[in-house]
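Human: For the file, kindly provide a plain-text protein record giving the amino acid sequence and the backbone structure tokens, at your earliest convenience.
Assistant:
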Amino acid sequence: MSLVFLADSVFVLHGAFAVLVAPSALLALAGRYASRPVLWNLHNLSITVMVSGQLLLQKCPLVALEQTLRNADGREMPYTGSFVRYVVDHLTGITLPTGSVMALSVSIALVSIAALVQHWPYGAVKSALSEA
């Protein structure tokens, strides 16, 4: 399996994440994951990775992974900067303002934190508490 194929797969995964993360945060806040601990845990893991990656790498961890794979194969990234800005510009011709994607990411993280506060405990924590 080539590194370019893996990098392209990360690109597609990134697209799916970008499309699903905002609705997932709203579903978490609305309590729709109450009986779905796997989705609750998956959402919170995704948000944790997104925020941690931004803090530690100063960019999205999926962009960093894609870039590492492409560079290891001797290729350049097809875009610089934000994945979301690149995709929106490429598909629609609309250039999002600088900082808009970061503002959206912060908003999604805050909604997810509000969901944690409002609906704690779910998932593994709730299972562990009920077994004790």
